[in-house]
Write a structure and sequence with these properties.
The structure is a homodimer. Chain A is mainly α. Chain A has 2 domains: about 60 residues, Homeodomain-like (Arc Repressor Mutant, subunit A, Orthogonal Bundle); about 150 residues, Tetracycline Repressor, domain 2. In chain A, about 70% of the residues lie in helices and about 0% in strands. The longest helix of chain A has 26 residues. Chain A binds a DNA duplex through α3. Chains A, B: Pfam families: TetR_C_7, TetR_N. Chains A, B: Keywords: DNA-binding. Chains A, B: It comes from Kitasatospora putterlickiae. Chains A, B: This is TetR/AcrR family transcriptional regulator.
Chain lengths: ~210, ~210
Amino acid sequence: MGSEVSTGAGRKARGRDERRQAILDGAFAVFARRGYAQTCVQEVAQEAGVAKPTVYNHLADKESLYREAVEAAADRVGARSLAVVEGLREVAPDADLREGLRAAGRGLLQACHDEEARAVHRLASAEAARFPDLETSARERTALRIRSALADRLARLVLAGRLRPCEPELAAEHFLALLTGPLVYRPDAEPDALARAAAEVFLRAYGPG
Amino acid sequence: MGSEVSTGAGRKARGRDERRQAILDGAFAVFARRGYAQTCVQEVAQEAGVAKPTVYNHLADKESLYREAVEAAADRVGARSLAVVEGLREVAPDADLREGLRAAGRGLLQACHDEEARAVHRLASAEAARFPDLETSARERTALRIRSALADRLARLVLAGRLRPCEPELAAEHFLALLTGPLVYRPDAEPDALARAAAEVFLRAYGPG
DNA sequence: TCTGAATTGAACGTACTGGTTCAGAAATTT
DNA sequence: AAATTTCTGAACCAGTACGTTCAATTCAGA
């Protein structure tokens, strides 16, 4: 029972878990570019390099396929973004805070606003009617985790006197809003310019009095 | 030709345009709660109080139905939001700017983040695969219009010395981001608290030196 | 090499829905 | 009141895709 260790050269997904992952990855890719209804299970199987009955061997039905694929992708995005925020841990007490925030902003734009991340949000909210809980589930795995981690970092910066006293959660929301908000109006804006502007404005509002 | 004047007591949509509007309204309502694929034309007809062939009499096919319904709703949302922003025109030179921004923020949250507005954005991005241009079309009718109008108001405030010199478009993006960004993390946040925080932070960043 | 499990390709039944057609009813106009 | 247009209800056709079944084949492990 369980999955056996992959002995081969890994040309194809061997163990059971790996094959399952391959199917979920393929499913996410197809769902992302076609949407739920337009996607037929046959196409998912093709994308995963597998036969249709095999898909149903690993996942109960199309709905499970969707839910699991989106949640797995959300976990990936969350993990990536979290790593970026953790980078803020290493701002030396005498380093330029603006530069640190700017770097974090750049990283966050790459991590939580790349193609995969946007697809996660789109897919989660698109089928909110069919999967009422998927939207909140995805939010928890991505946005809420990121805010929480960022709030931790900001709280330490407040204690260090580098930011004015404030509610860390709200400040985190504001930084992330300043960073990603403009993308609504300019989807192809330069990440560097966005990060610069966000750090600048955030520090004017939240920098030490 | 064209639509005749509605003579009856309006119990039902009489003129041709009115009936068309009734169909589009019904379509938007059903699409909003079911999504595109889950919606069958029969249900739209029922919601509009009309027979299925009548729907096809007024609109070519299901795709037109979707596109036109979403765009009409986007226009409504845009018009509502624009009216709110125009309210900023009347901030007296000696009035409390923070209070004016706060009021505008409250109004904008009602106008461009109510049920209908959120449905517009969801429907536009959900079917971006099928309707590549609908997403940008909806964005132009709502977000871009709002930003433009708000930038106009902010530019005047800069000239009046009530805001520091800045790029009005960017400042508008930042105000809107501060206002609506937190909703990503707290969908049920108090509009009043959001508007207060947004105005507060915005003025710390963009208020006169 | 042998055994059992997993995978494959194909086909099948079923259900749903988009878009159309048609004859009759209703309503509006003349 | 007669005529014309529009709406209605029902039925119909075609296409599509889900989920399943099955025999044949491949693969993993002993």
